Amino acid sequence: MAVDPALLDWMLDSDPALRWQVQRDIAGEPPEVWEATRARIATEGFGARLLTLQEPDGQWAGGAYFPQDFDFDGPEAAEDAGQPWTATTWSLNALRDWGLDAAALTGTAELLAANSRWEYENLPYWGGEVDCCINAFTLANGVWLGADVAGVARWFLDHQMADGGWNCEWVAGSRRSSFHSTINALKGLLYYEAAIGGSSELHAARRVGEEYLLKRQLLYSRSTGEFVGPWVARFVYPFRWFYSALNAADYFRAAALHDGGGPDPRLAAAIEAVRSGREADGTWLQERRHPGRVWFEVDAAPGEPSKWLTFHGTRVLEWWDSAVPSSAQWGD
Q: Whole-model pTM?
């Protein structure tokens, strides 16, 4: 799939956190070009701005997953209020996803070990807690920053469900996996494996978790055959902890490249859901914003073309279309 030069220029006219990825994965620029852009994340734009908000104790907003001033009984905790996205874990997630060199956060792992505790039972930061998504973020952020998170990695082996996935509600007695929890667990496990090699057990657990989603074509409930929820075809950046066909397809692209394989044919329906979200001009629109406090906005307003979504959507379709013949895509 050739990318329109005007569309490519539009994506390139962006913050270094996005531009270097467009240069590498869409424009095919040589490493010396995109690596130079990537190095600017620490000193320009979103990355530099977020780094200035880190506090002397290593945290952001004074908390591990929620800001220090978060009122768990107040209006910000209402069912439809979303959640704040400013605390330490969310800030680290953003910086890591944007590609910041961990050297810019030298000493942060040690500061968090000394100063940050989970809001759940005051547990130490790098030990994780009981939520699958939180532990997945901790696993990826820990290995990125050089913390010892081997115990968090083993946690996923002990908490994988019989159907192959994970569910953050296991503490409340759930025995069925969740699309949201599973995609976050998979992303954390893949990041950990790519960083240090993981283990045969963790690799096997990741592949079983992938099967949970693939058996459902990344979209459907096995009991009803319908979309598992309206959110599967709703595209929003940042992804946060929310599942979508685009978020999942982007993961499976990364996993296939890491494992040295091609696209699984069971991705076809999800790929077409992604493709159907593309506008005539090649862009994807920001469909909403996940409600909740943010440090600053990093993407388009709802209803506007999103450079981040357009990058992820274009990258996924280029990967798929280059590997899967058009006749196979349409079932001829």
A: 0.95
